[in-house]
Specification:
Elements (H helix, E strand, L loop, with lengths): L1 H11 L9 H17 L3 H20 L3 H7 L5 H22 L11
Helix pairs in contact: 1-5, 2-3, 2-5, 3-5
Amino acid sequence: MSIAIGICLIFFTSMTTYFGLSGLLHGLFGYFSLKKTFRNCLEGLFLVSFSVIKGILEYIYGASELISRIIGAHIAVEAHLLGLSLGLIFSSIEFFAKNKHLSISKEKE
């Protein structure tokens, strides 16, 4: 996942350097939260919803200036959103690959 985040940052953002694990952490959080949702766990649905809302609001309004001052660096909001998106995509791919019998279109015998 970290390689995919790095490639997406290169091609889809104007960032030239990125140091940190925040994108990967957001991706892992999204991945396991959606995995929990697929197991019919209401907590997982809450976590996915909260993560998506947080990511969108952070992208629209920017990261907290206070946190940016505390860590002394720019917060890579793009990495957070890309990591979360990729985590959700990877979790969905895994779920549907393992559960091919749940597909909407059934083959006629």
